[in-house]
Design goal:
The chain is an alpha/beta fold. It contains 14 helices and 17 strands. The strands form three sheets. Strands 6, 7, 8, 9, 10, 11, 12, 13 and 14 form a nine-stranded parallel beta sheet that branches. Strands 3-2-1-4 form a four-stranded mixed beta sheet. It has a four-stranded antiparallel beta sheet with strand order 5-15-16-17, covered by helices on one side. Helix 12 packs across helix 14. The two termini are 19 Å apart. 55% of the residues are buried. Bound molecules: guanine and zinc ion. Zinc ion binds next to strand 6. Guanine (GUN) binds next to helix 1.
Length: 437
């Protein structure tokens, strides 16, 4: 299968948290991207001689083509309770999350939500979500079945919880291990899918469960691990009571072999120096979830410590829906900017879009597949419309640079700003024809 896209495109080549913005990206004002069997085979300035015979490129002269966005921390089962009012993390889990997650023992319900969730991610321009499922193995099968049909590169895992949650949401250390092992064998490495061992967070797992989670991770070939870390102050105090022998929150995970490459820690707001240093040294990843952190009143993530530092920590971006309030990476970036502002730090537009694409791809160890527009990468692409609304069109008239255009996009963009989304070279969402998927 051969396809081609023509139009302005932007892709990052290096890290703008380390080098000047100007040397970290490639922008082609009239570009051509040629795709064969889902892989980019050439990308550069448009040249009619490079268009494959018999192919008419999808042409977006007024668009901006970028690599598909990555959402490295999200809970698909929480889609039905996004925007639940008035509580912070621990109460919010008890009152809204757990009752919703109980419904996923019904695989038909899980399938229906997974389908709507993936459609929303594509409408938002996200081509790689990494999601929590629920404790029910069916919730994982439902998700991966839908993702497989769409051909997505995506990760997911069965939540492990053997204490401090309602009965219908508990497994045991052994049953959680066995089910995860079966699911990983079924899904990990199939097509573009990968499996993440998923202990929800320290308070809902016994030491026995965390031990077996570490065992699973060691036994698997290239498995991921995802969990939550230091999101909320009451959570921190609870973890200290439950694990009095641990030096700090991260130590709870570290003692069980859960801190290393491909281990993704959501939030990581309230960390001490020792924890930051260990994350850096271990090559572990933190996932910044700004809309969630503001919505739950959790705190202000220290992006500067993570990335502008003598020993930086791999950092990805996440929506953390349903605590997060939007599928749109533009909303995530806008709130990341505001959190940096409240801390007295700077986030440039190039840094922001790097984080949503190549930066997250590197942080989750997928950059050999996704995150940039260059030969050999998979053709997961998003076509943005910088003038999608009357207000955007008005404001963009006064933009003086690519950086301006991007900053306006991330501050005011939403799903209307996503003109089309391609997965492995196939257009799966088209804003204007209503036939997307
Ligand atoms: N900590 C443990 N579980 C969750 C969850 O579902 N969402 C968030 N934001 N934090 C958590
Ligand atoms: Zn989360």
């Amino acid at each position: 299968m051969i396809a081609a896209l023509r139009g302005p495109y932007l892709s990052y080549t290096a890290n703008p948290f380390e080098d000047a913005d100007s040397v970290c990206h490639r922008y082609e004002a009239d570009g051509l991207i040629v795709i064969e069997d889902g892989i980019i085979v050439s990308a550069g300035a448009f040249d009619a001689a490079l268009v494959p015979v018999g192919i008419t490129p999808d042409h977006y002269p007024d668009g901006l083509i970028m690599p598909g966005f990555i959402d490295a921390h999200v809970h698909y089962p929480q889609m039905p309770m996004i925007a639940a009012h008035g509580r912070q993390l621990l109460e919010w889990l008890d009152h809204y999350v757990f009752p919703t997650e109980l419904r996923y023992r019904d695989i038909d319900f899980a399938r229906a939500v997974a389908r709507r969730f993936l459609r929303e991610e594509l409408r938002a321009g996200v081509t790689t979500p990494i999601t929590y499922c629920t404790v029910h193995p069916e919730s994982v099968d439902a998700y991966f079945e839908e993702a497989l049909q769409l051909g997505l590169r995506t990760g997911a895992g069965k939540v492990l919880m053997d204490r401090n949650a309602p009965d219908g949401l508990l497994d045991t250390a052994q049953s959680g291990y066995d089910a995860s092992k079966r699911l990983a064998a079924r899904w990990h490495g199939r097509d573009r899918l990968f499996y993440a061992v998923t202990p929800r967070f320290a308070p809902t797992s016994t030491e026995a469960q965390l031990y077996l989670a570490g065992t699973l991770l060691r036994e698997g070939d290239g498995l991921y691990m995802q969990t939550h870390l230091a999101e909320n102050r009451d959570e921190l105090a609870w973890v200290q009571r439950l694990f009095p022998a641990s030096r700090d929150y991260l130590d709870v995970y570290d003692r069980f072999g859960l801190v290393g490459p491909r281990c993704l820690f959501g939030h990581a707001i309230h960390l001490g120096d020792r924890e930051w240093a260990l994350l850096a040294e271990a090559g572990a990843t933190v996932v910044h979830c700004p809309t969630s952190n503001l919505f739950l009143g959790s705190g202000l993530f220290n992006l500067k410590r993570a990335l502008v530092s003598a020993n930086p920590v791999r950092t990805a971006l996440g929506s953390d829906l349903g605590a997060g309030t939007s599928f749109s990476p533009f909303a995530t970036l806008a709130e990341a900017y505001k959190i940096a502002q409240l801390r007295g730090d700077v986030l440039t537009a190039h840094q922001a879009f790097y984080l949503a694409t190549l930066g997250s791809a590197r942080a989750i160890d997928q950059d050999r597949h996704i995150g940039s527009i260059e030969p050999g990468r998979e053709a997961d692409l998003v076509v943005l419309d910088p003038v999608a609304t009357p207000l955007l069109a008005d404001r963009q008239r006064y933009a003086e640079s690519l950086e301006d255009t991007l900053f306006i996009l991330m501050t005011m963009g939403d799903d209307r700003t996503v003109r089309a989304t391609y997965v492995a070279g196939r257009k799966l969402h088209d804003r204007d024809d209503g036939r997307g998927m």
